Amino acid sequence: MAEKQTILGRISQLAKANINALLDRAEDPQKMLDQMVRDYTNSIAEAEDAVAVTVGNLRLAEADYNEDIKTSREWGQKALAASRKADEMRAAGKEADATKFDNLAKVALGKQIDFENEAKAAEPVIQSQQEVVAKLKDGLIQMRNKLDELKTKRDQLVARQKSAEAQNRVQDAISSINVLDPTSELGRYEDQVRRQEALAQGKAEVAAASLDEQFAALEDHTNDIEIEARLAALKNGEAPAQIEGKDFTAY
């Protein structure tokens, strides 16, 4: 009985294990889950063997009990038959034969009582074993459910880890892009182009200013000839040249 209680205690302890609490204390949750899955699988196999032995012993006890009940009934039938035979012998005036069959009936009744007592004594033991087996079976179901939970958590953890690793790789790639941002290179090249454009524009404006000055100087010298001609005319006594105005009154 102590062994059964030990098995029951182990099953109960494993079935009630708080997986989340264990994971919180684990340095490597995935490795711990893998180990827990192996431990649970082995424990379930051991528990199944132990429960099978317990169930086998229970079935033997039940079979013995049923056999005791059957045998007790058979002895009761034999006692009844002997008693009836004794009555027949006594009715026929055969007292000696009647007494013999009554004695046989007593022996049969004694056997019946013995097997009844054995059956009665076995009843509480069998009932206790049935309760233990029921608890063991329930514990096995809980352990199998816990094993499924472990496997599910392990698979979820592996999937989450792979997803996190993928996200980290993406973030690392983004960070490296930010460090060597090609658009920043384009920006610097654009600045160079703008400076070249500004330089060209500056040179063009400088060239245009120089050309304007040259034309301005040319315009100033073109009047010199007209001035000299008019001065010579004045010296020759000619009237000053005047421009004739137009009459805009008709408009």
Characterize this entry briefly.
The chain is 88% helix and 0% strand. The protein has 251 residues and is mainly α.
How is the topology of this model organized?
Elements: H1 2-15, H2 19-24, H3 29-91, H4 95-179, H5 182-235
Description:
With 251 residues, the chain is mainly α. The chain has helices at residues 2-15, 19-24, 29-91, 95-179, 182-235. The termini are far apart. The mean pLDDT is 78.
CA distance, first residue to last residue? 139 Å
**Structural class, from helix and strand content?**
mainly alpha
* Tally of strands: 0
Name the shape in a single word: rod-shaped
Mean pLDDT: 78
Question: What is the ordering of alpha helices and beta strands?
Answer: HHHHH
Beta-strand share of residues: under 5%
Low confidence ranges: none
Over the alpha carbons, how many angstroms does the gyration radius reach? 61 Å
> Number of helical runs?
5
Helical fraction equals: over 70%
Largest sheet: none
Distinctive features:
0% strand, single chain, 251 residues, mainly alpha
